[in-house]
Amino acid sequence: MQKVRVLVANRPRLMKDLVLATIGDQPDIEIVGQAQDREEIIELVERTRPDYLIIALEESETRPGLNGFLLGRYPNMKILALAAERNSGIFYWAFVDIRSRRVESSEQGILNVLRNRPELVAG
Amino acid sequence: MPVAQETVAVFILAENRLLREALTRILNKKSDIRVVGASAFVPEIAQQIAQLAPDVLLSDSAAAALSELHLITEIRTAVPGLKVVMIGMEADKAIFLRLVREGIVGYVLKDASAIEVAAAVRSVANGEAVCPPVLCLALLEEVAQQKPQPARFIVRHGLGLTRREQQLVQMISDGLTNKEIAGQLNLSEQTVKNHIHRILRKLGASDRFTAVELCRLPGAVA
């Protein structure tokens, strides 16, 4: 079985630990790296070519160019942006243009996205 | 010296569901910590927590926003002895100091690791306080700015003074002049003089300061 390859780049630290705790024990998910900032994200995405990037929602909102840049350059990758304060996240993927869908910021919400559950991924 | 508890019972109050779920799993992996409940804020949360009787309440900063409602105070009243640790989004001095006044004994920032959160739970359960250095400085500065409160003067009973006269003795002991007493009690200065004259007569005192000493409850003032 091919594992889903995930790059984790959440902030702040506690949110990253919670995401790692959620997906770290899953047999079908492989964590390919952890990035701290924009430069590391770009570098590690290029080097590891993950299936998914999990990022802080605040990062994608305050730096709107990052999602567009990454999905434009790596259209097969999908991005899950999780809020530290709010109880929600946004799932981004490229399909001709960039599409997005709101998802729940919960353990099951994250795993549903990474396991490509059709009810969540279908636009 | 405080003795470490065998197992610390923790309740997680957090608006963020991922924080509730993943932190519950992380803490439950520790042999000395047991999460007895986790919930977002609901109106009856204080009663819900009281029923589970945790040692420590771990709450996120969304609940801090609810502290305008004195939520922490309400929960601490419902669960005597409860230690509260707040997970703060930012090192905001005003929010931190307000929560300290409400009775929190631990504060960790979201830059902290999950291991540090677990350590904070253990520390407060063991009778210690936990605070990021930058907020610890804010706390020290706040205390340094506070004026020392004058020692509380307790009037001895059985001297035949009325309640109003006892009140005046208190105010004289605080160093207030007749004019200041009159202003605070909304009386004329002459009425205050009359009250003091009666106090001196009842106590057999020659002046107001002797009257204060005669009224002082032995050992009641530092």
Keywords:
heterodimer, A: 123 residues, alpha/beta, Rossmann fold, 6-stranded mixed beta sheet, 6 strands, 41% helix, globular, B: 222 residues, Arc Repressor Mutant, subunit A, 2 domains, 5 strands
Note the topology.
The complex is a heterodimer of chains A (123) and B (222).
Chain A (H helix, E strand, L loop, with lengths): L3 E6 L3 H12 L4 E6 L3 H11 L3 E5 H6 L1 H10 L4 E5 L5 E8 L1 E8 L2 H8 L3 H4 L2
Chain B lengths: L7 E6 L3 H12 L4 E7 L5 H8 L3 E5 H5 L5 H8 L4 E6 L4 H10 L3 E4 L4 H12 L7 H13 L17 H11 L4 H8 L3 H15 L4 H8 L7
Parallel strand pairs in B: 1-2, 1-3, 3-4, 4-5
Helix pairs in contact in B: 2-4, 8-10, 8-11, 9-10, 10-11
Commentary on this structure:
The complex is a heterodimer of chains A (123) and B (222). Chain A is built from six helices and six strands, in the order E-H-E-H-E-H-H-E-E-E-H-H. Chain A is of the alpha/beta class. Chain A has a single domain (4-121), classed as Response regulator (Rossmann fold, 3-Layer(aba) Sandwich). With 222 residues, chain B is α/β, with parallel strands linked by helices. Chain B folds into two domains: 8-145, Response regulator (Rossmann fold), CATH 3.40.50; 163-215, Orthogonal Bundle (Arc Repressor Mutant, subunit A). The two termini of chain B are 28 Å apart. Chain B has helices spanning 17-28, 45-52, 61-65, 71-78, 93-102, 114-125, 133-145, 163-173, 178-185, 189-203, 208-215, and strands spanning 8-13, 33-39, 56-60, 83-88, 106-109. Chain B is built from eleven helices and five strands, in the order βαβαβααβαβαααααα. At the A-B interface, helix 1 and helix 5 of A face helix 1 of B.
